[in-house]
Write a structure and sequence with these properties.
Strand content: under 5%
Shape: globular
Number of helices: 4
Number of strands: 0
Order of helices and strands: HHHH
Helix content: 55-70%
Distance between the termini: 19 Å
Structural class: mainly alpha
Largest sheet: none
Oligomer: single chain
Length: 56
């Protein structure tokens, strides 16, 4: 990833690399699909706890 890659792009790329749908990831993380959509779009940033659950 380059330094210009935003967090949402990185999360989306990793999610797709693991063949997870947004719905599957949000169920595992415990957040709404709407919230994840905003994170991936770059309009919201996840809190540290949410970020840690996403990366797990």
């Amino acid at each position: 990833m380059t330094e210009n890659t935003n967090l949402g792009d990185a999360i989306r790329t990793l999610r797709k690399a693991r063949s997870l749908t947004r719905a599957e990831l949000t169920e595992k993380v415990g957040i709404s699909e709407s919230h994840m959509n905003k994170i991936e779009a770059g309009s919201r940033k996840p809190g540290i706890n949410t970020y840690q659950r996403i990366m797990e």
